[in-house]
Amino acid sequence: MLKTGYTALTVAATSAMLSSAAIGGTIEGTAAYRERIAVPPDATLYVQLQDVSRADAPSVTLSAKRYALTGVPAQFELSYDDALIQEGMRYVVRGSIFQGDKLLFTTDTAYPVLTNGAGNTTDLMLVKVQPPGAAVLENTNWTATGLNGAALETERRPALSFANDGAFSGSGGCNRFSGQAEIAGNNIEFPDNMAATLMACPPPLDEVERQFFKALQGVTAYAFKGDTLVLLDNAGQSVVQFAREQ
């Protein structure tokens, strides 16, 4: 079975503090992301310490460093002026990975540090930034257009959708089904024991649904071709194709 892992980034510091004030402390941590893909050799990691105390005002960057990515795992140190830190205020660390000016990964949640019970260490989990309009697996409704290399011509077609945690649900064209897929990078496996309704289906829906469920059991990876989601077997052959619903 697949296991979800993550790729961490070892980095070498290349820039200094934003402020020239006296340095009073250091925040240490790691930066990582779950996808099993390498970053470009010219990618950089940008880490910031921000004051987010005021909900009605923009965050204030107190310290920042940019790192050149050199390998795995990733560790960073962020120095700050202790005189800028006040008890009761809120401070967070944010991280982003760039290739030139292009944003590749970023944190999508707050990582508190220094006050309100938080310490001076934190581990950042970055998420991949999708280009505007790009197809994504999660939170998208997919309708099957091809099965085992042949176009689907039935009026009611299989459909599939995924949540962020790998949970999925859909229809075989007749019966509803759901389950938990194991997803790591572009690898995916569907469970043998999917929950499904057991309605009798008229032809040709019954045969289409039978082939669809059988095809899912052989899926080991997925890929995108524009707005098309392609599920692949272990030989890299397309077994199911889906179109993104608009």
TrEMBL record:
One Pfam family matching this protein: YscW
InterPro entries to which the protein is assigned, alphabetical: DUF306_Meta_HslJ (IPR005184), HslJ-like_sf (IPR038670), Lipoprotein_YbaY-like (IPR053196), Pilotin (IPR039366)
Gene3D superfamilies associated with the record: 2.40.128.270
Endpoints of the signal sequence: 1-21
Domain DUF306: 135-242
Keywords, in A-Z order: Signal
Protein name (database record): META domain protein
